[in-house]
């Protein structure tokens, strides 16, 4: 199993500390090795056995869920500057305080973009680093993620990205980094598709995973996605472009784990903090199951309360959503749509149909995604 896969997997498993029993002076010595009494409790033994089985399962899954070779990254979420484990986002409640580069401050939540802008402007260091987020992030996402933005790891991440943008070519363009949040409001999300890096060649990335701007050659992975969708939904007309904006507008969150990348260097912005931030994004999505902050009735849920579908293609995506509650959400796993792995389980996975079947059960006949919208009114392509 690749070291990075193991490190990511470890974030989604609670650790079990085994404490050896203290030997007292009155304890009888044990002289027969083959009859040595174990100091491990039955629970500890079961935990060790389950851990070994989980590791074996991870190794098998990594073999089965292929990744495109061009996208192999120096990806180890465990080395994230935040020092936090990604799964902690799912397993632990939000802290009552947040850490910033200037210390620990009580959380003061803003209700509007302007309120947050004013709060941040009181600290010049924050204002300089967070201008892009305050100016370009979709407002519902901005309000939901505001506490994350002032944590030390994110401020350090922004310092790194800003320096890269000044000295290197970085994709996508700054104004497109958060386009996913503008095209796909939090309240509308029904499906989450997880990618790795933005595309790192010129003119491709525009802030949506797997998507490229109109006029740009359709990437091979996306062509395979189109093929699978056409096989599942014959009415889907394969478009001549690779712009997935319409999917985003119909409730599909197309989220890369790293939101930026240095030109022509895959994985160059991994392990800088984006992984922790995008895990927080996923937490925001799954947290919509909880009552809204201003609701009185426990049955009055915020939009999306009945769950969402996660499409986890490839080992990386599977690890990123491993902490998601499977009793409340649907997680669909398969091989990656890359040409190198699509034939190993992506083709024929029926994920688009399965997603809609599940959503219609949860939300009613109109609850599915109109996948056909992307190619509507356009000539097909081979």
From TrEMBL:
<keyword id="KW-0496">Mitochondrion</keyword>
<protein>
    <recommendedName>
        <fullName>Uracil-DNA glycosylase</fullName>
        <ecNumber>3.2.2.27</ecNumber>
    </recommendedName>
</protein>
<feature type="compositionally biased region" description="Low complexity">
    <location>
        <begin position="22"/>
        <end position="32"/>
    </location>
</feature>
<dbReference type="InterPro" id="IPR005122">
    <property type="entry name" value="Uracil-DNA_glycosylase-like"/>
</dbReference>
<dbReference type="InterPro" id="IPR018085">
    <property type="entry name" value="Ura-DNA_Glyclase_AS"/>
</dbReference>
<feature type="domain" description="Uracil-DNA glycosylase-like">
    <location>
        <begin position="182"/>
        <end position="359"/>
    </location>
</feature>
<keyword id="KW-0227">DNA damage</keyword>
<dbReference type="GO" id="GO:0005739">
    <property type="term" value="C:mitochondrion"/>
</dbReference>
<comment type="function">
    <text>Excises uracil residues from the DNA which can arise as a result of misincorporation of dUMP residues by DNA polymerase or due to deamination of cytosine.</text>
</comment>
<dbReference type="Pfam" id="PF03167">
    <property type="entry name" value="UDG"/>
</dbReference>
<feature type="compositionally biased region" description="Basic and acidic residues">
    <location>
        <begin position="33"/>
        <end position="48"/>
    </location>
</feature>
<dbReference type="GO" id="GO:0004844">
    <property type="term" value="F:uracil DNA N-glycosylase activity"/>
</dbReference>
<keyword id="KW-0378">Hydrolase</keyword>
<feature type="compositionally biased region" description="Basic and acidic residues">
    <location>
        <begin position="58"/>
        <end position="75"/>
    </location>
</feature>
<dbReference type="GO" id="GO:0097510">
    <property type="term" value="P:base-excision repair, AP site formation via deaminated base removal"/>
</dbReference>
<comment type="similarity">
    <text>Belongs to the uracil-DNA glycosylase (UDG) superfamily. UNG family.</text>
</comment>
<dbReference type="GO" id="GO:0005634">
    <property type="term" value="C:nucleus"/>
</dbReference>
<feature type="region of interest" description="Disordered">
    <location>
        <begin position="22"/>
        <end position="82"/>
    </location>
</feature>
<dbReference type="InterPro" id="IPR036895">
    <property type="entry name" value="Uracil-DNA_glycosylase-like_sf"/>
</dbReference>
<feature type="active site" description="Proton acceptor">
    <location>
        <position position="197"/>
    </location>
</feature>
<keyword id="KW-0539">Nucleus</keyword>
<keyword id="KW-0234">DNA repair</keyword>
<dbReference type="InterPro" id="IPR002043">
    <property type="entry name" value="UDG_fam1"/>
</dbReference>
């Amino acid at each position: 199993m690749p070291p990075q896969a193991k490190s990511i997997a470890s974030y989604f498993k609670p650790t079990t500390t085994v404490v050896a029993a203290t030997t007292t002076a009155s304890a009888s010595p044990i002289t027969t090795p083959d009859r040595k009494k174990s100091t491990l409790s039955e629970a500890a033994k079961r935990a060790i056995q389950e851990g070994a089985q989980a590791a074996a399962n991870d190794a098998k899954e990594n073999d089965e869920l292929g990744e495109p070779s061009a996208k192999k990254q120096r990806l180890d979420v465990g080395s994230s500057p935040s020092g936090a484990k990604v799964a902690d986002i799912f397993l632990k409640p939000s802290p009552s305080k947040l850490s910033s580069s200037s210390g620990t401050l009580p959380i003061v939540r803003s209700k509007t973009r302007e309120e947050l802008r004013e709060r941040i402007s009181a600290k010049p260091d924050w204002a300089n680093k967070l201008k892009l987020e305050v100016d370009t992030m979709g407002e519902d996402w901005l309000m939901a993620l505001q506490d994350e933005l002032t944590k030390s790891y994110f401020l350090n991440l922004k310092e790194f990205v800003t320096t890269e943008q000044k000295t290197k070519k970085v994709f996508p363009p700054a104004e497109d980094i958060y386009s996913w949040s503008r095209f796909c409001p939090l309240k509308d999300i029904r499906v989450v598709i997880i990618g790795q890096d933005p595309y790192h060649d010129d003119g491709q990335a525009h802030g949506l995973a797997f998507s490229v701007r109109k006029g740009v050659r359709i990437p091979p992975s996306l062509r395979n996605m189109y093929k699978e969708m056409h096989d599942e939904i014959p009415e889907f007309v394969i478009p001549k472009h690779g712009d997935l904006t319409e999917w985003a507008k119909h409730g599909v969150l197309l989220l890369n784990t790293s939101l930026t990348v240095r030109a022509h260097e895959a994985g160059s912005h991994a392990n800088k903090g984006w992984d922790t931030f995008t895990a927080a994004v996923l937490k925001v999505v799954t947290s919509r199951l909880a009552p809204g902050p201003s609701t009185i009735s426990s049955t009055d849920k915020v939009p999306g309360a009945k769950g969402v579908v996660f499409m986890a293609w490839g080992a990386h995506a599977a690890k990123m959503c491993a902490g998601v509650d499977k009793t409340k959400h649907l997680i669909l796993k398969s091989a990656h749509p890359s040409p190198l792995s699509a034939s190993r389980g992506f083709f024929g996975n029926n994920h688009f149909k399965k997603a809609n079947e599940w959503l219609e059960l949860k939300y009613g006949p109109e609850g599915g995604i109109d996948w056909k919208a992307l190619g509507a009114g356009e000539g097909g392509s081979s």
